[in-house]
Structure formats: C-alpha cells, structure tokens
Amino acid sequence: MTMPTTLVTGGSSASGIAVARALAAAGHAVYTVGSDDVRIKAAALEAGGGVTPLVCDLASLDSVRELADTLRDLGVAQVDGVIHLVGGWRSAQGVEDQSDEDWDSLEEGAITTLRNVSRVFYGQLEASPQGRLAMVSSTSVTSPTAGIASYVAAKAAAEAWTLAVADGFRNAQSANTENPVEQHSAAVIFVVKSLVDETLRREHPERRFPGYTDVEELAAAAVGLFEEPAANLNGQRLLLAK
C-alpha cells in the first residue's frame, strides 16, 4: 500500500513537531501547517527531513481552500490523513467571569479550524483507502469545572463535530449494499489531561506532571492510526492520559 500523505495542522507547536517527525519517520509524506511563515518553517526543520511547511489561516475557510489548491499544485493527488492539533486554553474564576474574548478565541481555535479543515478535505479522506482524521481533546470534557467552562464547551463541540465526521465516513462506506466495501476511513479523538514536552520538563524540573501525556506518546498514537483497521477506530475516544 502506498504510504499516506498527511497534514499536521497546528504544526508549529511542540506536539506538531513531534507528530510530524514521527509520521515522516514512518514513511508518510508530511505537510505541516501553521499560520506564521517563520515559525512553521522552523518547526519543519526541527521535525527533520520529509516534512514540508505550509502557511494557512485555518480559521478562514477560503484560506483552507487555498491550502488544498496549493497541495494540488505541489502534485498531491489525495490527502490521506489530517492530524489536527489546533486548540488553545483559557480559564477564569468561575462561570460569571467567562469572557466573550476567551470564548471567541476558543471557538475559533478549537471549533472553526476543525470545521474548515474537515469540510475541505472530507472528500479526500473519505475516498482514501486509509483516510484518518484525528483531533486532541481533554479529559475535562467529561468532568467539567466552572473555571474552564468555555474551554470544555469548545472541546465538547469539537468532539461532537468529529463524531459527526465519523458517522459520515461510516454511512458513505456502507451505502453500497450491492458491493459493500470494508470501512477504510476513520475519525477519532485523542483524549489527554494535558501535553508535556522536554522544554516544559526542563523549565519545571520540580514537577512530576502526573497524568500528563508526553508529546512523543501522542506522536506514536498518530502513527498507529494508520496501522489499525478503520472499523476499530472510527468514532472512538482514545484515552492517552495515564
């Protein structure tokens, strides 16, 4: 089977660098996407060979459509995977002081970017023999607290959208009852308490980060999506928190 072409959105982050590096090492053609030209180029260099940086405002549907056009111009006939690592974090004291500014930022980062990317690349992912869409959510979605009400609400909405994409894959691939095809595309949710990398560990040597997920573990899980049958993955919340 041809190795996948995979987009890593939110590629300038520590998790984006780790995921891009791991996918490239596994043989994927990796395109890492960020909003800042300098940062995404630096991230691609850090991720190593086989990682191509691209600039896109994922909060703009037109910009994501332009990203798809750019990939076609680069000779990419089909995107097989999207590992979506865009999100954000906001907190407050309680429900009453959840600000509109924080909500707008979370809605854009956690929901709008995911909607745009999944809509633009949905057809390619659904048609791919190994299509995969993954997002990262939080354990706090199932145990929300008042101080992070906006954050968990945005993450919950993003999860619901991802599960709807999973249903779309499921329905499309079971629609032909005369010539049924095996499930080959999957949308999944990685669930973490929080992510930690070596930089954070160095900055806080006194902390043990209990329950946190190392970005390298997330990277390995992203690679593993393409090694597991789609039917086993589609619509699943995959807990990576310890």
Protein architecture, described:
This protein is an alpha/beta fold. It contains eight helices and nine strands. It has helices spanning 14-25, 37-47, 61-73, 100-127, 149-174, 198-203, 215-224, 230-233; strands spanning 5-9, 29-34, 51-55, 81-84, 131-138, 185-192, 195-196, 213-214, 237-239. The strands form two sheets. A seven-stranded parallel beta sheet has the order 3-2-1-4-5-6-9, with helices on both faces. It has a two-stranded parallel ribbon with strand order 7-8. α1 links the parallel β1 (5-9) and β2 (29-34). The two termini are 33 Å apart. The model has no long low-confidence stretch (mean pLDDT 91).
Question: What is the structure about, briefly put?
Answer:
With 242 residues, the protein is α/β, with parallel strands linked by helices.
